[in-house]
Amino acid sequence: MERNRLSAYNRGQRKSVFSSVEDLGQRLEAAKYVIDTVTLQVVYLAARMRKPVIVEGPPGCGKTALAQAIAAAGNTVIERLQCYEGINEEKAIGKFDSALQKLFLETQADHLEKDWDSIRNNLHTLDFFVQGPLLRSLLYERPCVLLIDEVDKVDEGFEALLLEILSEWQISVPKLGTIKQRSVPFVILTSNEVRRLGDPLRRRSFYLRVEFPTVEREAEILKVRSTTSNAGLQRLIAGLAHALRGWQMEKPVSIAEMLELAQALEILGAQDITPEMRDTLMPLVAKTGSDRKRLLLRDGFASLVHDAHRYAEGISGDAVERELSEVTTR
């Protein structure tokens, strides 16, 4: 039995979508995803070893983008389960279509007495089951990417529901039976740390901690993914993102929002970010009333622009803080 299990595991290894770390890296580069060496290796190992990956970090730091990039690199699709408080099995796995079952019974009215057992059995098959993303992810002929997004919003009971699929790659459904995988999906579970995930889920997964990128890395992301070719502006936008996040805003700006800012500046034909652009850029970077009030404070946006230029020039955050502190104490 153990030999059979290992043989099945080795067959799964040979069927891995990515032939090497270098192959995965090249495919992610083609998908315009900037990845560090450690994350690259963890993703490759997870693909080869058929392990889920928990990606944890603040909202907007690029967790979902990793799943999208892996799907693009593997030339496959994403099955996305968007988690929320109160989500149930029907949303995740699926349910029987009672209307379709009723219609089928009506078409078989003449055969009910003679073939009832056969008809009843047919009613409880996949033909009459509306599949949710967890079940669909197991039924692809070649592996998909299963994104279980914001899993920290569900309760421990729903976490327990996930354990069967993440351990055995199968799902048990009343009246339908146990559905085994046709292919093993690449699973990414994202968490914004609303709630600590349980240890059983963590034991079955690899773990990646993701933070907002440095100025240098965000400038590289902008270079790869934004439409602007102005390297100085790319770095300035990255500096502005770093400055905004340093303000500990109620809703920190995401990487995606900074890419939108780059697009907006290109549309406007801007080659620089100046304090006079405050009212134009405010709707793009301040998404709550309190954040807007902070940026409307006297010299608030101007100081952010000043810091953005300094970060873009390569001065560390500590140096900027020391300089501002010296100005304040004079």
Q: What is the first-to-last residue Cα distance? A: 77 Å
Give the second-level CATH assignment, the architecture of the largest domain: 3-Layer(aba) Sandwich
Biggest sheet: strand arrangement? 2-5-8-1-9
Let me know the number of strands. Answer: 9
Biggest β-sheet description: 5 strands, parallel
Count of all domains:
3
- Percentage of helical residues? 40-55%
Q: What oligomeric state is this?
A: single chain
Point out poorly predicted stretches.
1-14, 315-330
> Given the helix and strand composition, which structural class is it?
alpha/beta
The CATH superfamily of the largest domain appears as P-loop containing nucleotide triphosphate hydrolases
Averaged pLDDT, please?
87
Question: H/E element string?
Answer: HHHEHEHEHHEHEHEEEHEHHHHHHH
Which CATH top level class of the largest domain fits? Alpha Beta
Net shape: elongated
Rg value: 25 Å
CATH fold annotation of the largest domain? Rossmann fold
Beta percentage is 5-15%
Our count of helices gives: 17
